[in-house]
Write a structure and sequence with these properties.
60s Ribosomal Protein L30, Chain: A, alpha+beta
Length: 125
């Protein structure tokens, strides 16, 4: 299977990287910040709201690739503040109530104004 670039207007776009790439039976979703796909503005002031928007953007990309959040096997999230970890887990458990994906976290090395989190995932196609 050749790689396929995934693109949707229902998630923020970038001129320098793909929203997602489907290859080898998997979908690789680039790190998604809590940005509104239409305005480009950050959505939410709390870590829960921003986590929600990141996952909403990821969900849109996965759907454009013909898959879903249920098929996510791995996730990486990057936080601005490690003290937000509990808030991420609070929102995360709403999106992945059963059989959650493997996951890894790290601290955001840069601080875009107001951005608290970025999430990238790998899902089965």
């Amino acid at each position: 299977m050749a790689k396929q670039i995934i693109s949707t207007g229902n998630a923020p776009k970038s001129a320098i990287y793909s929203q997602g790439v489907k290859a080898a039976g998997l979908v690789f979703v680039s790190g998604q910040g809590p940005f509104d796909p239409v305005t480009g503005e950050i959505v939410g002031g709390t870590i829960q709201e921003q986590t929600h928007q990141c996952l909403k953007n990821i969900q849109a990309i996965l759907e454009a690739a013909g898959t879903s959040l249920d098929r996510v096997v791995n996730a990486t999230f990057i936080l601005a503040e490690e003290t937000d970890f509990a808030g991420v887990n609070e929102e995360w458990s709403k999106w992945f109530p059963e059989d959650p994906p493997a996951r890894q976290g790290a601290k955001l090395p840069i601080r875009p104004a107001g951005m608290k989190i970025s999430i990238a995932v790998i899902a089965e196609a």
